[in-house]
Design brief:
Layout lengths: L2 H10 L2 H26 L5 H18 L6 H12 L8 H24 L1 H11 L25 H5 L4 H14 L14 H4 L3 H7 L17 H5 L23 H18 L3 H9 L27
Helix pairs in contact: 2-8, 5-6, 5-8, 6-12, 12-13
Length: 303
């Protein structure tokens, strides 16, 4: 398939109607939840909600301009080099969705385990509230690198359009799970990512750390030992919260913390490990009794 044909699919393929419909539905239920919280006077940090919306607008603008074709273009060489090809049918769309969900699990898990990746993903976890606008709180930086996790899908034969759209669908599915308005759902919580399951993922409680990475299905968490059921009340946010509603600070505060730690390092290997290593690692000479974690905003995953 030529580049022109692949590009045309983003406008012409019928699955894009599903993508558009899900976007509208997510916007509608978010607006409904906001109105419901106003009517019922549910406690909410409204400045936090506003920050989430500003971040969302910036994210949408960049996705449609600067980052719009980055992932697509970057995946093209792998598409043309691989000898494998999977045709687009109803069945292969289901297969692509399953592959994208598996891809998402490992992408998400690695974003929690490596500091340079966490620097962007921590944006999503830094809210101390839990409502549908938190689903909007996504770093604009993630679009620079998340496409790379789709390379295995391209190598096994999926085209860039199908791989990208499948990952978008996995992401869109997750919007509705960012709410306290839906209680536990019984057996559904064992199979799918639900509000109860995802509340655990956003918890800074000790037993909730590093749990429930799945996008749509929870089978990956159960297979790889990261599944946890909702028990005690969830405390949202980071283990050390950032205490700001400034969208710019929210987006870049952990990058600034990494740079601060890099400047203190004495060797190149230590600098590289600070950037690419685990979240809580620091060289021994930087550790003090009053500073035992990597950064003021370090993730929920302090070891």
């Amino acid at each position: 398939m030529s580049i022109e044909e692949l590009v045309s699919l983003f406008d012409a393929h019928q699955i894009m109607m599903i993508v558009a419909t899900l976007f509208v539905v997510n916007m509608a239920i978010t607006g409904f939840e906001i109105m419901l919280d106003l009517v019922t006077k549910k406690e909410r940090r409204w400045k936090d909600t506003l920050a989430n919306c500003v971040i969302f607008i910036a994210h949408q603008v960049l996705r449609r301009t600067t980052f719009a074709s980055l992932g697509f273009v970057a995946l093209l060489p792998f598409y043309y080099l691989t000898p494998l090809s999977i045709p687009m049918t109803a069945w292969t769309w289901l297969l692509a969705l399953l592959a994208a969900d598996f891809t998402y699990y490992w992408m998400h898990r690695l974003e929690h385990e490596h500091r340079i990746l966490w620097a962007s993903h921590s944006v999503h976890h830094s809210s101390e509230d839990y409502n549908l606008t938190v689903g909007f709180r996504l770093s604009v930086v993630e679009g620079l690198f998340e496409w790379a996790f789709l390379i295995p899908m391209i190598v096994v034969g999926f085209n860039p359009f199908q791989a990208l759209v499948a990952l978008i669908l996995v992401a869109q599915y997750q919007h509705w799970v960012h709410t306290e308005r839906v209680d536990r759902l019984g057996w559904l919580d064992e199979v799918f990512n639900t509000p109860s399951v995802h509340r655990v993922h956003h918890g800074s409680n000790a037993q909730y750390l590093d749990k429930n990475y799945g996008g749509i299905l929870m089978i990956w968490d159960k297979l790889f030992g990261t599944f946890e059921r909702e028990g005690e009340e969830v405390t949202y946010g980071l283990t050390r919260n950032i205490h700001t509603n400034n969208p710019i600070k929210i987006t870049f505060v952990e990058f600034a913390n990494i740079w601060r730690d890099v400047r203190k390092c004495r060797t190149l290997s230590d600098r590289l490990r600070i950037i690419f290593g685990g979240l809580s690692w620091r060289p021994a000479y930087l550790r003090t009794l009053s500073d035992t974690t990597t950064a003021d905003t370090l993730s929920k995953h302090s070891k």
